[in-house]
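Translate structure to sequence.
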C-alpha cells in the first residue's frame, strides 16, 4: 500500500525536490543589497549602509556582530542546498535569502558558526579562506553573499555574551543537530502555507506548546543545552545574555528552538551595516569603519 502511494506520488515528489535544489539559480543580489542600502548600484563590489542609527543605551555600550550568509554551493546537489532552498521557499517576509548565521565580537574575518562536519562543529569561519572550514569550502566565495549586522548592547551584556560563546567554543559537547532542521522545516511549511496571515510574521507566530525558552547557568551541567542548528544557537545565546532580546522573545512568545536564519535579521536592534560577496568581506569591513570611525576598535586585523 505504502509503496503504491509512493509510486503514484513519485513524479510530484521529484518535481518538488528538483525545484528546491535549483531554486539557487535565481538571483537574490538585489534584495540582499537593498536590505543594506536601498537602490544600491549593481556594479558596486560591496555596499556600506548609510545613516545607520542604533537605539540609545544608558551607560557604556559595545557591539555584537552577526554575519548572515547566502552561500552559493559549488555542487547544486550538495545536501545543504536543499536546506537553503527549502528556507527560501517557506519565507513569509520580504527578506534576503539567507541560510547560515555566525556571531562575532569584532569585525575581523573570523566569526563563529555552527555547522555539520569538522573536528569542532562550532568553529571559526573566514570568508577570505573558506578552505579552512569544512562547510565553507563547499561554497564559491565569489558568488556567495554575506550581510553583516550589528547589535548595540551594554558593555556588561557584551562581555557576558562573549564569555558564553567562548564557553561553547571550548566545549567538545556542542553538536549540530541535523534533525532539528526537519522540525524547523515542517514548522516553516505550516507557517507559510497553513497559517492565517496575521500569525505568519515574526513576532506574531504561534509556536508549539512543547517549545520552551530556557535560561541556563553555565556552572550547572544539567542546565546546559548542546544540540542546535546555527540559528537556534544564536537565539539561545541572545536570549540568555541580552536583556532587550530576552524581553522581546518573552513579550511575543518567540521560541528560539524554532528560529530560522532570516528571523535573526528581524530581531529589533539588529541592524544591517554592510553587504559583500565573501571575497570582498575584508574590503567591505574596512570601508565601513572608514565611514563610521566609532567601529575602528572592532577591526584589528
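Result:
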Amino acid at each position: 500500500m505504502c509503496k503504491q502511494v509512493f509510486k503514484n506520488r513519485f513524479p510530484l515528489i521529484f518535481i518538488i525536490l528538483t525545484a528546491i535544489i535549483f531554486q539557487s539559480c535565481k538571483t537574490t543580489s538585489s534584495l540582499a543589497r537593498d536590505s543594506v542600502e536601498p537602490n544600491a548600484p549593481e556594479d558596486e563590489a560591496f555596499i556600506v549602509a548609510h545613516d545607520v542609527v542604533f537605539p540609545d543605551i544608558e551607560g557604556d555600550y559595545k557591539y555584537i556582530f552577526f554575519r548572515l550568509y547566502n552561500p552559493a554551493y559549488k555542487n547544486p546537489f550538495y545536501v545543504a542546498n536543499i536546506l537553503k532552498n527549502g528556507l527560501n521557499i517557506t519565507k513569509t517576509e520580504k527578506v534576503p535569502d539567507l541560510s547560515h548565521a555566525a556571531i562575532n565580537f569584532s569585525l575581523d574575518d573570523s566569526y563563529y558558526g555552527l555547522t555539520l562536519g569538522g573536528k569542532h562543529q562550532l568553529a571559526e569561519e573566514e570568508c577570505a579562506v573558506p578552505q579552512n572550514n569544512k562547510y565553507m569550502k563547499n561554497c564559491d566565495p565569489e558568488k556567495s553573499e554575506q550581510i553583516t549586522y550589528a547589535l548595540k548592547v551594554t558593555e556588561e551584556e557584551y562581555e557576558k555574551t562573549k564569555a558564553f560563546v567562548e564557553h561553547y567554543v571550548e566545549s567538545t559537547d556542542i553538536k549540530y543537530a541535523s534533525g532539528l532542521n526537519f522540525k524547523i522545516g515542517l514548522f516553516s511549511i505550516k507557517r507559510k502555507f497553513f497559517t492565517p496571515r496575521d500569525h505568519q510574521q515574526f513576532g506574531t507566530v504561534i509556536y508549539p506548546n512543547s517549545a520552551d525558552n530556557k535560561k541556563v547557568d553555565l556552572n550547572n551541567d544539567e542546565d546546559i543545552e548542546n544540540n542546535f542548528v546555527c540559528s537556534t544557537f544564536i537565539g539561545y545565546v541572545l536570549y540568555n545574555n541580552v536583556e532587550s532580546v530576552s524581553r522581546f522573545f518573552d513579550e511575543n512568545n518567540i521560541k528560539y528552538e524554532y528560529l530560522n536564519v532570516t528571523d535573526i535579521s528581524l530581531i529589533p536592534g539588529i541592524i544591517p551595516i554592510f553587504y559583500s560577496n565573501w571575497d570582498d568581506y575584508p574590503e567591505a569591513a574596512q570601508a565601513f569603519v572608514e565611514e563610521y570611525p566609532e567601529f575602528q576598535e572592532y577591526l584589528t586585523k
